[in-house]
Amino acid sequence: MAAVLLAAALGTACAAEGAGPPGTGAAGRHGGQEQGGQERGGQGPQAPQARPRTASGALAAYVERFRREHAARAAAARRWGLRRTPLLPPDPPKVKPEITFRKGFEVGDPSLPPVFTTVPTRDRVVFLTIDDGAEKDPELLRMMSELDIPYSAFLSDYLVKEDYGYFRRMRDLGVALHNHTLTHPYMPALSYAEQKHEICGQQDVIERHYGKRPTLFRPPYGNYDSDTLRAARDCGIKAVPLWTAEAFPDRMEWREWDRDLHPGDIVLTHFRGRGDWKGSMADMVRQAMDTITARGYAVARLEDYV
Known about the structure:
The chain is of the alpha/beta class. It is 36% helix and 11% strand. The chain is built from nine helices and nine strands. The strands form two sheets. Strands 2, 3, 4, 6, 7, 8 and 9 form a seven-stranded mixed β-sheet that branches. A hairpin with a 4-residue loop joins β6 (245-247) and β7. The chain is globular, with a radius of gyration of 24 Å. The model is unreliable at 4-48 (pLDDT under 50).
């Protein structure tokens, strides 16, 4: 990855070097010089001149910046007790992949929001998602911010309403907040109208407190029927991500036969603490990230692909 990035930087630097007359720099290309060769705000011949942008100079600056960023990331990984420094994801795709129903997850109407467990991509990335909102651990916010690991939250109001401000801080850190119903019921046991109330009601809550109506919905327990998806569509939902693996502080649980990760897999975990788990949310992140990194994957932002 480093070699690819350095090559890209060299190409960028070379392009910049040939973009204008020698010695003009960025100011010269954008009209920053007055007639007679004096720079704006300068004092004639005594004004400092822009240093020429060279390929070697730009490359050296890029290498130094990359080195510093990698060192900071490695230091954060050590500070939080990870065995390895998390891998960096590639740039998001310019065009998002088409999301369709996973085979066997259909309900007979292909126009409904698709239910899927894996995003179609060749990138060696997976996606971390956290459900419900029971545990509101400030350590999680610090850890994920310092490690720069993206994740998505699927929220249920009966738990989130205990502290809307916690999830507002999460949103302000760049985390996307999605729909997990108002009260976390078993959806197939409800009528269409009841399911619509659960989903649309949570859409209203998230918009009221966080400013945006989600387009992703995860049914509680992963259970749904055609009424669930009809209600989701009627509430503005575009897709229904489930999961292929689940992270706990002391283990990973797998839903695929090979008990492994694959490009585009969605990893589930929950907002839980020591009262429910054998560890904290930070312990869960360590377990998940050590597994993901050891298998050669980076964590990417789900909303960049869906």
